[in-house]
Amino acid sequence: MTERSITAKSMGELYQIMDRTGERLISAKKPAFNLSLDMDINQLLGLEVKAKKLPPKDLAMFTRQLEMLLNTGIPMLDALDALEAAAVTDNLKKVVNNLKKRVTGGAQ
Fold first, then answer.
1. CB contact at 8 A, 47 and 61
2. Which domain holds residue 23?
3. Which tens digits make up the pLDDT trace of 78-105?
4. How far are the Cα atoms of 12, 28, 29 from residue 24, in angstroms, in the given order?
5. Same domain flag for 10 and 39
6. Counts of helices then strands in the chain (DSSP H, E)
7. Residues 43 and 86 in one domain
8. Residues 6 or more apart from 16 whose CB is under 8 A from it?
9. Does 15 share its domain with 42?
10. 30 vs 16, 27, 33, 58, CA distance in Å?
11. What is the pTM of this model?
12. What digits encode the pLDDT tens for the residues 35-80?
């Protein structure tokens, strides 16, 4: 048995890679949620909202504000509630609302 790490965008892609190499998958795990500046907003929201890509400036501001709230000890959902109420654009408000839904629902 050989252990190795394979990076794939989806389980489907992982299975295609395994089929091509003739290997058998024993276990797989999904990496932790990763938020990057070039991430398409539909990826971020799990395709729940058809929205425009969030401008890097807005994403940077949102993440700084979220970090500040969390570092002061405010619970995640309370911080997201505050950020949703303070959102300056409808797109950002949708993003925060959907993040709240994913956190509350335990989205994977």
1. no
2. 1-31
3. 999 999 999 888 888 888 888 888 888 7
4. 14, 11, 15
5. no
6. 5, 0
7. yes
8. none
9. no
10. 17, 10, 9, 27
11. 0.52
12. 554 455 555 555 444 445 677 788 888 888 999 999 999 999 999 9
